[in-house]
Amino acid sequence: MKNSRGLLYPALHKFYSALSSLEKFEKGSNLFDNITHLDNFFSEYRNITFVLQKSLARTEFRSVYEKLRDKYLINDVGKWFLGKRNSIVKEQPFDLEKRIVISIYSGNSTYSLSDLIFTIENDVDFSSIVESLRESFLNSGQIEVFFSAEFTFYERGHTQDLYDNFVLGITQMKLLLSGMQKELNEDCVLSEELERKIDKLNFYRVPKDFLFVDDYVFNCKYENFEKASRAALTSEHKNPRSPIENLDKYYPNGDILNKFELMHLVIFQMQNRLMPTCMIVYSDNTFELNSFESSIKTTVYRKFNEIAKRIEKDNIVNILFVTEMYTYNINDVKNLDSQERIKHAKSEILSFYMINNQLSIKSHRYETKKANDFKYIASIMLANSMEQELPAFMNPIRLEFTRLLGVENEQNNAT
How far apart are CA 291 and CA 277, in angstroms? Predict the structure, then answer.
């Protein structure tokens, strides 16, 4: 028979309380509310180890706890959590600072407005910030203006993004509790229920941009803002990278673009739709896939800008992308917005693009109505690629690879 309360139950409940407080932290909330949620989070997070020590005080597992504590919590982030809990209990509420960056995208460039910085002394409702952009967008001469708003949060006077510390601290605490659970080997109804509740919480599980970035389009013709509805495929694996050779099962003898194409053509055949997917290839011959959907094009612009910023730091050597597209007669859609153009679509296609760090560019297009015709697929795949053709939203990748290739050439010439 299962026990109603195990030794780990009090700690798991405190962990759930901490995460529940953090779950209420939202980018668009006023700073008074968000500070309250953070104060509760820090207090409950610190209480996890207090109640766990009390549960284990007179048991043989105290030494096991100390070993796991030293392994997972004795580090800079652990010390920071301890310090914050002590200061908010004994001194003052967490001193939170919010920064917002508005990025405006076009086919040729990305322009970011100056950072907007807020504390409790000058906080404003975010809707007023969006509305303040209306006049400049109307005067832009564009049919549509694509832009995003990225929120970051800091401890006032510091430069470390709080999100990184939160996720690392939560991850380390989960590892400690998981280690204790294995050692205790308890059969506890309440602990199991809490674990199920913890697994449903979003803050530490969903992609960061879902929590802290909003994508918008402003339609200058109708003078209205639209916020993107988004979705993404996520993985529970700690390391999202896979070896390139894993793609051999799709096309053992083809090049990387062929493997990528055939993999996604098969997916399209099975479900008759496809999420836009970016494949990021690293210098160590591993790759990761980033699949997402959005109701507006802004998300695509933002995604490629974000990837471009990672290229040098993460040693990215190749980018591949697939998406469903419409084809048009350009004269039919010249002055129409994105939604109006769909009515004039001539056909639907699957478009594949690739660019690597040597600026080799390849692309293929497949009519979706022929996606089940393997002879047709082979004819396109084996044909010469439409060289040097990339969509405008991939320009940030091209520009960054171009910059790095120039740096590399300068270094080679210098030696």
Answer: 4
* DSSP states along 293-305: EESSTHHHHHHHH
> To which residue do tokens 């962990």 refer?
15
CA proximity to 361, closest of 325, 322, 389, 381? 389
Counting every residue written for the chain, the total comes to: 415
Task: List the structure tokens of 347.
Answer: 């056909």
Please say whether the beta carbons of 118 and 149 come within 8 A.
no
Contacts of residue 94, defined as CB under 8 A and 6 or more positions apart, other chains included, come to: 35, 38, 39, 42, 84, 88, 155
Q: Residue 383 gets which letter from DSSP?
A: S
In the numeric block, which tokens belong to residue 220? 């200058």
The b-or-e profile of 96-117 (16+ CB within 10 A means b, else e) is bbbebebbbbeeeebeeeeebe
pLDDT, one tens digit for every residue, the chain (415 residues): 455 688 999 999 999 999 999 999 999 899 999 999 999 999 999 899 999 999 998 889 999 999 999 999 999 988 898 888 888 888 899 999 999 999 999 877 899 998 999 999 999 999 999 999 999 999 988 999 999 999 999 999 999 999 999 999 999 999 999 999 999 988 888 899 999 999 899 888 888 999 999 999 999 999 999 999 999 887 766 678 999 998 888 778 778 999 999 999 999 999 888 999 999 999 999 999 999 999 999 999 999 999 999 999 999 999 999 999 998 888 888 888 888 888 888 889 999 999 999 999 999 999 999 999 989 999 998 887 666 678 999 999 999 999 999 877 777 776 6
Instruction: Report the 10 Å Cβ neighbour count for 411.
Output: 9
Q: Is 281 helix (H, G, I), strand (E, B) or coil?
A: strand
For 155, the enclosing helix (H) or strand (E) is strand 144-155
Mutual orientation of helices 62-72 and 162-184 as an angle, nearest 10°? 150
pTM attached to this predicted model = 0.88
Rounded-to-integer distance, Cα 45 and Cα 39, Å: 10
